Amino acid sequence: STIQKQREELQLLIAELKDRDKELNDMVAVHQRELLAWEDDRQKRLTLAERCNLLDNELNKRNDIIKSLTQRLKFFESQQNDSRATFEYTQQKFKELSQKVTDATVHCHALEDKNRSLHCSVLELSAKTGQLQAREQELLTMLKLKDELILETTDHITEITSKFRKLESALRAARTEELTLNEEKQDLKLRLKELILETNKLKVDLSEKIKENSKQQEEIIQLRQENGCLRSELALLVEKSKRKDQLLQFARSKQARTDRELSSLRQIYIKQQRDLQFLHVNLESSQELRQ
């Protein structure tokens, strides 16, 4: 019975612990939501603070503008008051005159206003004509400079094309020379193989003739002499083949140099063509602006 009671108490405690754990989990979730809300509020507060700073700066600028405008307005008001005082003074003087004089003065004022407007328009037109003349001079100088650049680039391109043609002819000659050297090398290799076979046959014949008969020493001496001649010829042919290999290597290095020079010249030619296209486009745009 005590064990049963303890079990029941333990079950009650476990249930209570589960409830407490659930409550704690709910509290943690609520706390996390509050933290996220606080972070959002903090970010909004920072953005609002930045906007407030920007608005304060703009407000200060506009306050400065308003102050300057108020000062100008006060200045204009003072000028207006002065003009009003002078106008009243002149009005008192002109009251004594007749109606004709007043009509004439009104007409003169109208003509003066019209003259002022015409004078202002003439000044504006003269300023515009001056600006247009200066722009025309600038465009003329730019066109002269571009014409000079085009002439220089055309001369440079002609020089590069002539060099390119010379290099192409040299490359063709080197390739033909390489082909002939390859053919000669193949012929020499075949001749060398034939000579090696012949020397081997002669050696076999010599060994057989030495074994067969000692009386044929004179023939052996002759054969040895022929063998020495063949060996000398073979050595000469080997030296000749080595020299031709060296010539082939020289021709290949020369061809590699010519290929590198050709590639560099092609790159320069492509760059010059791009510069020419860019200059033509600029010239057309400048001509259109001039028109």
TrEMBL record:
Organism in which the protein naturally occurs: Rostratula benghalensis (greater painted-snipe)
Key word Coiled coil present: yes
Q: Which UniProt keywords apply?
A: Coiled coil
Q: Which residues form a coiled coil?
A: 3-34, 157-233
Lineage of the native species?
A: Eukaryota, Metazoa, Chordata, Craniata, Vertebrata
Protein name (Swiss-Prot/TrEMBL):
CCD62 protein
